[in-house]
Specification:
The protein is an alpha+beta fold. Helix content is 42%, strand content 19%. Strand 1 and strand 2 form a beta hairpin. The relative contact order is 0.23. One of its GO terms (molecular function) is DNA binding.
């Protein structure tokens, strides 16, 4: 499970606006590329990779 704040700080640095939709955009790109594996959004928690 990766929280939005953790993704912002580790990938884009601390100077990124927390209200930015950059995480949403890149999660959408990853969902398109991963095919069978998928990224699940857990409201209030973050994102996780789910494999079958």
């Amino acid at each position: 499970m990766l929280a939005r704040e953790r993704l912002l700080s580790h990938v884009w640095g601390y100077d990124v606006d927390p209200g930015s939709n950059v995480v949403d955009v890149y999660v959408r790109y990853l969902r398109r590329k991963l095919g069978a594996a998928r990224i699940e959004t857990v409201r209030g928690m973050g994102h996780r990779l789910v494999t079958d």
